[in-house]
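Internal ticket #5521
Category: modeling
Description: The requester needs a full-assembly model to guide mutagenesis choices. All entity lines are attached below as received. Residue total reported by intake: 289.
Assigned to: D.W.
Attached entities:
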Amino acid sequence: MMRWTLSLLAGFWLAAPAMAADDAAAEALMKKSGCFKCHSVSAKKDGPSYKSVAEKYKGKADAEQKLYTHLTTSPKVKVDGKEEMHETLKT
Amino acid sequence: MIGRFWAWLTTKCQTCSRIRLGLGIAVAVLSFSGILMAAGAAGLAWTNTEKFCATSCHEMTDNVYKEFKGTIHDKNRSGVRAICSNCHVPHEPLPMLKRKLEATFEIWAKLTGRIDTREKFEARRYELATHVWKRMKQTDSLECRNCHHDDAMDPEKQSEKARARHLKMKTQGMTCIDCHFGIAHHEPDGPGPQELKF
Protein backbone atom coordinates (compact mmCIF):
# COMPACT_ATOMS: atom_id res chain seq x y z
CA MET A 1 0.00 0.00 0.00
CA MET A 2 2.78 2.40 0.98
CA ARG A 3 4.72 1.58 -2.19
CA TRP A 4 1.62 2.11 -4.32
CA THR A 5 0.92 5.44 -2.68
CA LEU A 6 4.48 6.59 -3.14
CA SER A 7 4.39 5.62 -6.78
CA LEU A 8 1.37 7.85 -7.11
CA LEU A 9 3.19 10.65 -5.38
CA ALA A 10 6.24 10.14 -7.52
CA GLY A 11 3.97 10.37 -10.55
CA PHE A 12 2.38 13.51 -9.16
CA TRP A 13 5.75 15.10 -8.48
CA LEU A 14 7.67 13.90 -11.49
CA ALA A 15 4.87 14.86 -13.86
CA ALA A 16 4.61 11.31 -15.20
CA PRO A 17 1.41 10.62 -17.16
CA ALA A 18 -1.17 9.77 -14.55
CA MET A 19 -4.91 9.60 -14.50
CA ALA A 20 -6.75 12.49 -12.90
CA ALA A 21 -8.17 10.16 -10.25
CA ASP A 22 -4.62 9.18 -9.20
CA ASP A 23 -3.62 12.82 -8.98
CA ALA A 24 -6.62 13.49 -6.77
CA ALA A 25 -5.75 10.53 -4.52
CA ALA A 26 -2.16 11.70 -4.19
CA GLU A 27 -3.26 15.25 -3.44
CA ALA A 28 -5.74 14.03 -0.82
CA LEU A 29 -3.01 12.00 0.90
CA MET A 30 -0.67 14.97 0.84
CA LYS A 31 -3.34 17.18 2.38
CA LYS A 32 -4.03 14.57 5.05
CA SER A 33 -0.32 14.34 5.81
CA GLY A 34 0.05 18.11 6.06
CA CYS A 35 2.60 18.29 3.21
CA PHE A 36 1.17 21.57 1.95
CA LYS A 37 1.98 23.27 5.24
CA CYS A 38 5.59 23.50 4.12
CA HIS A 39 5.50 22.64 0.41
CA SER A 40 3.59 24.05 -2.51
CA VAL A 41 3.21 22.80 -6.07
CA SER A 42 5.12 25.68 -7.61
CA ALA A 43 5.40 28.51 -5.08
CA LYS A 44 7.94 29.25 -2.39
CA LYS A 45 7.27 28.03 1.13
CA ASP A 46 9.61 26.71 3.82
CA GLY A 47 10.18 23.49 1.89
CA PRO A 48 11.04 23.19 -1.80
CA SER A 49 8.17 23.29 -4.28
CA TYR A 50 7.13 20.01 -5.91
CA LYS A 51 8.11 21.40 -9.28
CA SER A 52 11.66 21.96 -8.07
CA VAL A 53 11.69 18.45 -6.55
CA ALA A 54 10.53 17.06 -9.89
CA GLU A 55 13.30 18.91 -11.70
CA LYS A 56 15.88 17.66 -9.23
CA TYR A 57 14.91 14.00 -9.68
CA LYS A 58 13.87 14.06 -13.33
CA GLY A 59 15.39 11.16 -15.26
CA LYS A 60 17.09 9.67 -12.20
CA ALA A 61 16.63 5.95 -11.77
CA ASP A 62 16.70 6.08 -7.97
CA ALA A 63 14.11 8.86 -7.69
CA GLU A 64 11.33 6.65 -6.36
CA GLN A 65 13.60 4.97 -3.80
CA LYS A 66 14.95 8.28 -2.57
CA LEU A 67 11.48 9.76 -2.19
CA TYR A 68 10.29 6.60 -0.43
CA THR A 69 13.11 6.88 2.08
CA HIS A 70 12.57 10.59 2.52
CA LEU A 71 8.88 10.20 3.22
CA THR A 72 9.03 7.16 5.50
CA THR A 73 12.06 7.59 7.72
CA SER A 74 11.64 11.11 9.18
CA PRO A 75 15.03 12.42 8.08
CA LYS A 76 16.41 15.67 9.42
CA VAL A 77 15.83 18.64 7.11
CA LYS A 78 17.03 22.23 7.36
CA VAL A 79 14.44 25.00 7.57
CA ASP A 80 15.73 28.56 7.95
CA GLY A 81 19.11 27.17 8.96
CA LYS A 82 17.69 25.01 11.74
CA GLU A 83 17.37 21.25 11.66
CA GLU A 84 13.98 19.70 12.13
CA MET A 85 12.43 16.30 11.56
CA HIS A 86 10.56 15.79 8.28
CA GLU A 87 7.09 14.35 8.78
CA THR A 88 6.20 10.90 7.44
CA LEU A 89 3.27 10.25 5.16
CA LYS A 90 0.03 9.40 6.95
CA THR A 91 -1.03 6.37 4.96
CA MET B 1 -34.57 73.76 -7.90
CA ILE B 2 -35.47 73.20 -4.25
CA GLY B 3 -36.75 76.79 -4.07
CA ARG B 4 -39.06 76.23 -7.06
CA PHE B 5 -40.30 72.96 -5.55
CA TRP B 6 -41.01 74.73 -2.25
CA ALA B 7 -42.91 77.50 -4.04
CA TRP B 8 -44.94 74.95 -5.98
CA LEU B 9 -45.71 73.00 -2.80
CA THR B 10 -46.81 76.05 -0.81
CA THR B 11 -49.15 77.20 -3.58
CA LYS B 12 -50.66 73.72 -3.88
CA CYS B 13 -51.08 73.38 -0.15
CA GLN B 14 -52.25 76.80 0.94
CA THR B 15 -54.18 75.51 3.91
CA CYS B 16 -51.13 73.91 5.55
CA SER B 17 -48.83 75.87 7.81
CA ARG B 18 -45.19 76.12 6.69
CA ILE B 19 -44.02 74.27 9.80
CA ARG B 20 -46.36 71.35 9.21
CA LEU B 21 -45.38 71.23 5.57
CA GLY B 22 -41.66 71.26 6.45
CA LEU B 23 -42.18 68.53 9.02
CA GLY B 24 -44.12 66.45 6.53
CA ILE B 25 -41.34 66.72 3.97
CA ALA B 26 -38.68 65.93 6.59
CA VAL B 27 -40.59 62.81 7.67
CA ALA B 28 -41.02 61.73 4.03
CA VAL B 29 -37.31 62.26 3.27
CA LEU B 30 -36.22 60.45 6.45
CA SER B 31 -38.59 57.56 5.78
CA PHE B 32 -37.38 57.23 2.21
CA SER B 33 -33.74 57.36 3.33
CA GLY B 34 -34.45 54.78 6.03
CA ILE B 35 -36.07 52.44 3.52
CA LEU B 36 -33.15 52.93 1.13
CA MET B 37 -30.62 52.21 3.89
CA ALA B 38 -32.52 49.15 5.12
CA ALA B 39 -32.78 47.83 1.56
CA GLY B 40 -29.09 48.50 0.99
CA ALA B 41 -28.11 46.74 4.22
CA ALA B 42 -30.36 43.80 3.39
CA GLY B 43 -28.85 43.65 -0.09
CA LEU B 44 -25.32 43.68 1.30
CA ALA B 45 -26.23 40.99 3.83
CA TRP B 46 -27.74 38.87 1.05
CA THR B 47 -24.60 39.14 -1.08
CA ASN B 48 -22.60 37.87 1.91
CA THR B 49 -24.56 34.63 2.21
CA GLU B 50 -23.21 31.28 1.09
CA LYS B 51 -26.33 30.71 -0.99
CA PHE B 52 -25.71 33.89 -2.98
CA CYS B 53 -22.08 32.97 -3.71
CA ALA B 54 -22.87 29.35 -4.48
CA THR B 55 -25.88 29.78 -6.70
CA SER B 56 -25.84 33.24 -8.27
CA CYS B 57 -23.62 32.40 -11.22
CA HIS B 58 -22.19 29.24 -12.70
CA GLU B 59 -18.69 30.77 -12.67
CA MET B 60 -18.73 30.48 -8.87
CA THR B 61 -20.82 27.32 -8.61
CA ASP B 62 -18.72 25.26 -10.99
CA ASN B 63 -15.28 26.53 -10.08
CA VAL B 64 -14.40 28.14 -6.78
CA TYR B 65 -17.41 26.93 -4.77
CA LYS B 66 -16.94 23.37 -5.95
CA GLU B 67 -13.31 23.50 -4.83
CA PHE B 68 -14.25 24.97 -1.46
CA LYS B 69 -16.54 22.02 -0.62
CA GLY B 70 -14.83 19.51 1.62
CA THR B 71 -11.94 21.80 2.59
CA ILE B 72 -11.08 22.55 6.21
CA HIS B 73 -13.08 25.77 6.08
CA ASP B 74 -16.17 23.90 4.84
CA LYS B 75 -16.16 20.75 6.96
CA ASN B 76 -14.12 20.10 10.09
CA ARG B 77 -14.26 18.46 13.51
CA SER B 78 -15.72 21.45 15.36
CA GLY B 79 -18.31 22.46 12.75
CA VAL B 80 -17.21 26.08 12.74
CA ARG B 81 -17.17 27.16 9.11
CA ALA B 82 -15.73 30.03 7.13
CA ILE B 83 -17.94 30.69 4.12
CA CYS B 84 -16.92 32.72 1.02
CA SER B 85 -17.63 36.13 2.52
CA ASN B 86 -15.68 35.35 5.69
CA CYS B 87 -12.48 35.17 3.66
CA HIS B 88 -13.27 37.47 0.75
CA VAL B 89 -15.20 40.32 2.35
CA PRO B 90 -13.81 42.44 5.19
CA HIS B 91 -16.08 42.56 8.24
CA GLU B 92 -15.46 46.25 9.08
CA PRO B 93 -18.07 48.58 7.51
CA LEU B 94 -15.81 50.85 5.41
CA PRO B 95 -13.45 48.18 4.03
CA MET B 96 -16.55 46.05 3.36
CA LEU B 97 -18.23 48.83 1.34
CA LYS B 98 -14.98 49.41 -0.58
CA ARG B 99 -14.76 45.70 -1.40
CA LYS B 100 -18.41 45.57 -2.45
CA LEU B 101 -17.87 48.55 -4.72
CA GLU B 102 -14.86 46.83 -6.29
CA ALA B 103 -16.93 43.69 -6.72
CA THR B 104 -19.53 45.52 -8.78
CA PHE B 105 -16.91 45.80 -11.54
CA GLU B 106 -16.83 42.00 -11.59
CA ILE B 107 -20.37 42.12 -12.97
CA TRP B 108 -18.82 43.50 -16.15
CA ALA B 109 -16.64 40.39 -16.38
CA LYS B 110 -19.76 38.28 -15.95
CA LEU B 111 -21.65 40.16 -18.66
CA THR B 112 -18.78 39.92 -21.11
CA GLY B 113 -18.18 36.23 -20.35
CA ARG B 114 -14.54 36.58 -19.31
CA ILE B 115 -14.56 33.36 -17.27
CA ASP B 116 -17.73 31.67 -18.48
CA THR B 117 -16.03 28.33 -19.22
CA ARG B 118 -13.77 26.09 -17.14
CA GLU B 119 -10.95 26.67 -19.62
CA LYS B 120 -11.24 30.45 -19.38
CA PHE B 121 -11.32 30.20 -15.59
CA GLU B 122 -8.22 28.00 -15.50
CA ALA B 123 -6.45 30.41 -17.86
CA ARG B 124 -7.14 33.24 -15.42
CA ARG B 125 -6.80 31.29 -12.15
CA TYR B 126 -3.36 32.66 -11.36
CA GLU B 127 -4.35 36.26 -12.13
CA LEU B 128 -7.49 35.95 -9.98
CA ALA B 129 -5.52 34.42 -7.11
CA THR B 130 -2.96 37.22 -7.22
CA HIS B 131 -5.76 39.78 -6.84
CA VAL B 132 -6.77 38.11 -3.57
CA TRP B 133 -3.18 37.67 -2.40
CA LYS B 134 -2.39 41.29 -3.14
CA ARG B 135 -5.35 42.51 -1.14
CA MET B 136 -4.53 40.24 1.79
CA LYS B 137 -0.88 41.27 1.80
CA GLN B 138 -1.93 44.93 1.86
CA THR B 139 -4.37 44.41 4.72
CA ASP B 140 -2.18 42.05 6.76
CA SER B 141 -4.58 39.21 5.97
CA LEU B 142 -7.50 41.09 7.50
CA GLU B 143 -10.03 38.44 6.57
CA CYS B 144 -7.99 35.66 8.23
CA ARG B 145 -7.61 37.74 11.34
CA ASN B 146 -11.35 38.19 11.71
CA CYS B 147 -11.29 34.69 13.20
CA HIS B 148 -7.62 33.86 13.81
CA HIS B 149 -6.43 36.36 16.37
CA ASP B 150 -2.68 36.54 16.72
CA ASP B 151 -2.75 37.51 20.38
CA ALA B 152 -5.22 34.74 21.20
CA MET B 153 -2.99 32.00 19.81
CA ASP B 154 -1.46 29.88 22.53
CA PRO B 155 2.03 28.84 21.37
CA GLU B 156 1.99 26.04 23.94
CA LYS B 157 -0.86 24.41 22.08
CA GLN B 158 0.89 24.64 18.73
CA SER B 159 3.37 22.17 17.35
CA GLU B 160 7.02 23.11 17.56
CA LYS B 161 7.05 23.71 13.80
CA ALA B 162 3.95 25.93 13.85
CA ARG B 163 5.43 27.90 16.76
CA ALA B 164 8.63 28.53 14.81
CA ARG B 165 6.73 29.53 11.65
CA HIS B 166 4.44 31.94 13.52
CA LEU B 167 7.39 33.52 15.28
CA LYS B 168 8.97 34.01 11.87
CA MET B 169 5.79 35.75 10.71
CA LYS B 170 5.97 38.21 13.59
CA THR B 171 9.68 38.93 13.35
CA GLN B 172 10.05 39.03 9.58
CA GLY B 173 7.00 41.08 8.65
CA MET B 174 5.16 38.20 7.06
CA THR B 175 1.41 37.68 7.02
CA CYS B 176 -0.97 34.70 7.04
CA ILE B 177 -1.40 34.49 3.26
CA ASP B 178 2.36 34.17 2.73
CA CYS B 179 2.08 30.52 3.82
CA HIS B 180 -1.64 29.76 4.05
CA PHE B 181 -2.70 29.97 0.41
CA GLY B 182 -4.43 27.37 -1.72
CA ILE B 183 -6.46 26.25 1.30
CA ALA B 184 -10.00 26.61 0.04
CA HIS B 185 -9.21 26.54 -3.69
CA HIS B 186 -6.74 24.78 -5.92
CA GLU B 187 -3.33 26.31 -5.89
CA PRO B 188 -2.55 28.19 -9.10
CA ASP B 189 0.61 27.47 -11.01
CA GLY B 190 3.20 30.17 -10.50
CA PRO B 191 5.10 32.17 -7.88
CA GLY B 192 3.31 32.46 -4.53
CA PRO B 193 2.64 35.41 -2.21
CA GLN B 194 6.15 35.27 -0.71
CA GLU B 195 7.76 35.73 -4.11
CA LEU B 196 5.51 38.43 -5.49
CA LYS B 197 6.09 42.12 -4.90
CA PHE B 198 2.82 44.00 -4.72
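Resolution: model delivered.
Comment from assignee: The first helix of chain B runs from residue 2 to 12.
Ticket closed.
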